[in-house]
Amino acid sequence: MIPIVYNVRSVVRRPVSTTLTALGVGLVVAVFIGMLALANGFRAALAKTGSDANAMVLRKGADSELSSGLGRDVASIIAADPHVAIAPDNRPLVSPEVYVLVPLGKVFDTTQVANVVVRGVSDQAWQVRSNVHVTEGQRPASGRADVCVGKRLVQRFPHTGIGETLRFGGRDWKVTCHFAAAGSAFESEIWGENEQFMPVFRGEVFQSITFRLKDPAAFDEAQRSLQGDKRMTVDVHRESDFYAQQSRLLGTILGFLAVMITSIMAVGAVFGAINTMYAAISSRAPEIGVLLTLGFRPWTVLVSFLAESAFIAVIGGILGCLFALPLNGIVTGTTNWSSFSEIAFSFRVTPLLLFAGLTFAVVMGVIGGFFPALRAARLQVVQALR
Amino acid sequence: MALVEIRDVYKSFQREEQRIDVFTGLTLDIEAGSFTALMGPSGSGKSTLLNLIAGLDKPTRGTVRVAGAPVSEMSPSQLAAWRARNIGFVFQSFNLLPVLTAYQNVELPLLLTRLSGKERTERVKLALDVVGLADRADHYPRQLSGGQEQRTAIARAIVADPTVMLLDEPTGQLDARSSQEVLTLLQRLNSEFSKTIVIVTHDAHAAERAKMILHLEKGDLIEKPRVAAAAAR
Prior knowledge:
CATH architecture of the domain at 4-95 and 163-232 in chain B: 3-Layer(aba) Sandwich
Oligomer: heterodimer
Distance between the termini of chain B: 26 Å
Order of helices and strands of chain B: EEEHEEHEHHHEHEHEEEH
Number of domains of chain A: 2
Number of helices of chain A: 12
Structural class of chain A: alpha+beta
Largest sheet of chain A: 10 strands, mixed
Order of helices and strands of chain A: HHEHEEHEEHEEEHEHEHHHEEHH
Strand content of chain A: 15-25%
CATH topology of the domain at 4-95 and 163-232 in chain B: Rossmann fold
Number of helices of chain B: 8
CATH class of the domain at 4-95 and 163-232 in chain B: Alpha Beta
Strand content of chain B: 25-35%
Low-confidence stretches of chain A: none
CATH superfamily of the domain at 4-95 and 163-232 in chain B: P-loop containing nucleotide triphosphate hydrolases
Number of strands of chain A: 12
Shape of chain A: elongated
């Protein structure tokens, strides 16, 4: 094989065209990683929201909490079900919840409103959702118009500081705490007591009931038993599956957009690589002639120039990764199309994504280098040496 | 049996509408261990003949055999493998790869063999030593003089111990002193190491160093091979 050092040094000898081509590839890789980091962050936020150990009950046929409604009788039936885990204080770990969207003005421009999830929970909700914990302040006291604000909302919406008063549903609500939920979608919600929210919003009806399974492995049995109960018409989901499902539509669209947009940009980068490699090959025709004269076979010339093109692309890929890395952790928000609610999440640049970016760069390099390399391999020795 | 056998070779090129006949039935033998100079005016077919022997070009008709191998009938892939083992080629403009050191340039043909790294190192050192450039192994071509570049190219041509060395105007771009050095080296390779050498040259002084001079004109050998003065001495 033609030694790789020949290609590496040839690349270094033409720094301007190498840098420009690598930058082109780098920008595409950065956009590719950035967009997938967005989709990744969105999926991760929702995936982390649900727990495998919890089950979620909705009205039969409801595909989101918004379209669901369950009466107090259903809440009582579920609380008494033997599949529900029991807390040390002997109370069932069940949280019948009110789920509504309220329009709130954003902090930088209060004329822009976003639909924020307001979730009325039972006292047990804080135990049922083991990933949720108060980071600052005191939990809302029972019987009072208190709310706890998810930490992702604090920076984005006004009047969310502890001790401040939020106004929604025609009433004032005192912010008594902030909570974190391991980066999940709960962090984009406002929680208060379900009994306080019920009369204000949708009357004597809960939107969902979430409970901790006594045995998470026995979910199927719990589902069969509850769905078969003639006293109610409900669907039972594993909480983790429910939130994964919620992320599917927008997550898929974001992923699709990432591929679409970067594919279009990649065409430009590939043409850049083609141009660079054609120029390199035409100026190095005598060198190729020498290699063929020495006895290197045409396919080794092809592989050598493909490797050179891939090498330039890898430089571009590394640049792209460096451009994209600072995106990691940046918080952004969007409307989840499954629930129509604002959800804030972080860009997630994972090692796998960086690897995918580098692989994408190599693919661009190989595609861009193929036809020039083929031309190099097909050069007639006598003509190449002239 | 001659080492190089050229039998009734025709070679023509198409240039736009015009057909140019370079050889029309050339027959020639080159013996093993000979040192042959091919002379003649530009366009007489000297370089084409060298290319045919090296398998870089194919005759329109006729056969070229080198050490019994039917060069004119091999596929490009077979030719590449055959050239790597049998041909050491030296160009007028040296044609060293500018991004590789003298050592790496000389090592190139050995990368096509099954020699170990250690064996390759020994062979490269020996070849550079033979051409008197052992101390320039780490120099890049731009750091060498023309004569040194050509001697490096000769080291590259001999390192794999080929059957035939073919040199196309090896002194064409060198000053008188460097030319003498290169020609002396070629004589040494022929006499001490029994290398079969064919050089194409315009330079009568260079041709005088060969044992045999062949004159080509318009594709024909215009006189019988004659023994050069150097060989007669």
